[in-house]
Amino acid sequence: MRKDDQIMPILAISEAKNKLTSLRREALTGKEIILADAKRKDEQAVSLISTELLDELCESKTFSFEWVDQPEGNTDHYSLWNQETGIYGVGKSKKEAIEDFLDNAQDYARIYFNDLPYYLSRSNPNRDHYWYLRRILRCNENREMLYQVLGLADLDL
Question: Are residues 125 and 66 in the same domain?
Answer without folding.
Answer: yes
